[in-house]
Design brief:
With 252 residues, the protein is of the alpha/beta class. The protein has a domain at 48-57 and 97-249: P-loop containing nucleotide triphosphate hydrolases (Rossmann fold, 3-Layer(aba) Sandwich). Helices cover 35% and strands 25% of the residues. The strands form two sheets. Strands 6-7-8-3-9-10 form a six-stranded mixed beta sheet, sandwiched between helices. The chain has a four-stranded antiparallel beta sheet with strand order 2-1-4-5, covered by helices on one side. A hairpin with a 2-residue loop joins β9 (222-227) and β10. It is globular, with a radius of gyration of 18 Å.
């Protein structure tokens, strides 16, 4: 059986780093600078939230960091790999093998069971599931008795737990979470956020989450603030109150 001790990360330093990151949409007079000269590091084995007013660039930043969107200039490193230098095939392989994703919409395949949805990335890569690790994470997430259920037979919270398990199964270097509690009520959202925090604290997982919710952000170790495409500060050990105060200063 996989234990927390066995899962303890030895890697130190940055899970993700960006330097001189710029991203523009449109051209000429209609051009919008979504990101402007961003320099940022995300520590390994920590839970970081990205926040800012609507249109601040937080989702664009996450999509660029995860290799889901291209940049106009600058570099992004995941571990020791500059993903801005990869071709489409190599970038697809990196996202499959080294990154986990959790989305607001769950993105489960309706015809597959919970277990099949969790193991789908491994199956697509023609890999072998580590059954000890599978048993550990599904047990930790309270899914053991739901593995044969299809998504329509699961509650929203259970579906999001399946998505979390899917993201954890491949032991990715980093998990990107895009408004992961946006479709959940406050009780179930707190449950999922608690699980994300535990996966960071107890499993050594690196997590980068975009959220607009100060309560969700308070589960993170650190909050990075954006405004008009530039970094506008950060908070360590955030609380809902300190996040709200920081956002108020940004006019959010």
């Amino acid at each position: 059986m996989t234990t927390l001790i066995e899962r303890e990360h030895t890697h130190q330093g940055n899970a993700v780093s960006a330097r001189g990151l710029n991203k523009n949409y449109g051209r000429g007079e209609t051009a919008v600078s979504a990101l402007r000269n961003i320099d940022i590091d995300f520590d390994a084995s920590r839970f970081t939230a990205i926040m800012g007013p609507s249109g601040s660039g937080k989702s664009t930043l996450m999509h660029c960091l995860a290799g889901l969107d291209s940049t106009d200039s600058g570099s992004i490193h995941i571990g020791g790999t500059d993903i801005t230098q990869l071709n489409d095939t190599a970038l697809t392989a990196l996202r499959r093998d080294r990154i986990g994703f959790i989305f607001q919409a769950f993105n489960l395949v309706p015809t597959l069971t919970a277990e099949q949805n969790i193991t789908l990335p491994v199956a697509l890569a023609n890999g072998t599931v580590d059954r000890d690790w599978f048993t550990f994470i599904t047990g930790t997430l309270g899914l053991t008795d739901r593995l044969n259920h299809r998504p329509h037979q699961l509650s929203g919270g259970q579906q999001q737990r399946v998505a979390v398990a899917r993201a954890l199964l491949t032991r990715p270097e980093v998990i990107f979470a895009d408004e992961p509690t946006g479709n959940l009520d406050s009780r179930v959202g707190a449950e999922v956020l608690g699980m994300l925090r535990r996966s960071s604290q107890e499993m050594g997982q690196s997590i980068i989450m975009v959220t607009h919710d100060p309560i969700a952000a308070s589960y993170a170790d650190r909050v990075v603030l954006l405004s008009d495409g530039v970094l506008a500060g950060e908070l360590e050990n955030p609380t809902p109150e300190t996040v709200l105060a920081a956002l108020a200063k940004l006019g959010a």
